[in-house]
């Protein structure tokens, strides 16, 4: 079985940078718990898709072998710097590029010193792979790709991992409801912007717990429209494609990141 | 101290291709040229800035997008490498810029006084976005004039275009007030492309100009219509048509730099000078100036 575990984690840096803030502490604890579960699954590689790595020309795949240094988020800079320690499984990434291109999704490698790796990828890698030991394949969110094409990318990544005999953990990095507070708030009082968004998030999480059968894709599409879902929840498309479906999900944490919905979920594989 | 003033405002778009094509020492990739008409347009803008001798350049960039309010660079010197996340093959630029923190703080305070959420960015490790850097390089490659960098608050996308434009116009008013109190001569830079329809694949040789043309005819026609109005000084008509332009040409001016600049300049009815227009991966780009003072 090439896919040994799968997780949804938020890309917001707030729980990582300010895990001491009560509304974000639960998400931080949950993300660390997800990291423990991931370690227990003993993956050789992480298959990461982050809604925050935006591409508009081609599908981009990170191929720089090791990225280190400091990253400052353009919005949340006041809460501190993010330490980057991201290793890439370049052989697998190159195989993904070739396979995606063969499948009609023009793809390119990104291997540049100083490339601004997105906050979501850095946050997920910090929580789930804290010593940076496990290499990853990281794919960009091309704005012109829909949910189905993103599923195809996830499927391609998993197939290539299997061809290389690698045990892979799938990581979908992104949020749930997308509305946020657009003014300064007391962060100790952070909560989901509206009761409607909160209800929609909880309903979606319940649907995820029921497994990927039973019209989950339709539920996701409805949610994305009604609750301004983060990038139409394409990160879940990546996860669905890579896992080939799941039988259920365990909610490790749910909360707000400046009003937007965020959850940490561990998926039970079929 | 005499009253400060805005001496000019420029439409100064930021395709990184323009920096790439020029081959400055700060940028790592090398090009065979390309996009010459737009770069020649910037040559004229550079001469104009040289004549104006401003004390400060203020740039509003859509590639520093902020969710909570309007942000201002607030560190006196910012240095580092800016790599374009979309075109890393073209733009890997080592920047070193001086910020006019005093004026930035004054703009921020005036914005807050007008009821806007505004804040200062104080993190010294902050990486300045490529839009800000490209516009500043193209307008003043010597980097010898302090800058004020403004983020693009997400309100035109998150709220409605109308509410977003209102915010940007207030920000423009705040900027003008701060400049007037500062006693400084200021140049405003609207770092925006016009029609933003673009090709989704890059040519093998990015500077192969045989592949360059407007991606969308409707977008091109909108750009010509708006440029003509600007050249005639009909700025109120431009602002009346602004929502349609944004909608139909998918214009990047939606991000707020244009209403910010026009409001700051007091909706000038003088004709704008067009230095040049050209496409970059199919998007429409104009370099233009409103000269407000000698």
Describe the structure.
With 270 residues, chain A is of the alpha/beta class. Chain A has one domain: Protocatechuate 4,5-dioxygenase, Chain B (3-Layer(aba) Sandwich). In chain A, 37% of the residues lie in helices and 27% in strands. Chain A contains eight helices and ten strands. A six-stranded mixed β-sheet of chain A has the order 7-2-8-1-10-9, sandwiched between helices. In chain A, strands 3-6 form a two-stranded parallel sheet. In chain A, helix 3 packs across helix 5 and helix 6 (195-209) runs antiparallel to helix 7 (216-226). The termini of chain A are close together. The relative contact order of chain A is 0.23. Chain B has 294 residues and is an alpha/beta fold. Chain B has one domain (5-291): Protocatechuate 4,5-dioxygenase, Chain B, CATH 3.40.830. In chain B, 38% of the residues lie in helices and 24% in strands. Chain B has nine helices and ten strands. In chain B, the strands form three sheets. A six-stranded mixed β-sheet of chain B has the order 7-2-8-1-10-9, sandwiched between helices. Chain B has a two-stranded parallel ribbon with strand order 3-6. A two-stranded antiparallel sheet of chain B has the order 4-5. In chain B, a hairpin with a 2-residue loop joins strand 9 and strand 10. The longest helix of chain B has 22 residues, at 161-182. Chain B is globular. The model of chain B has no long low-confidence stretch (mean pLDDT 97). The chains are: A alpha/beta (270), B alpha/beta (294). Chains A and B meet through strand 2 of A and strand 2 and strand 4 of B.
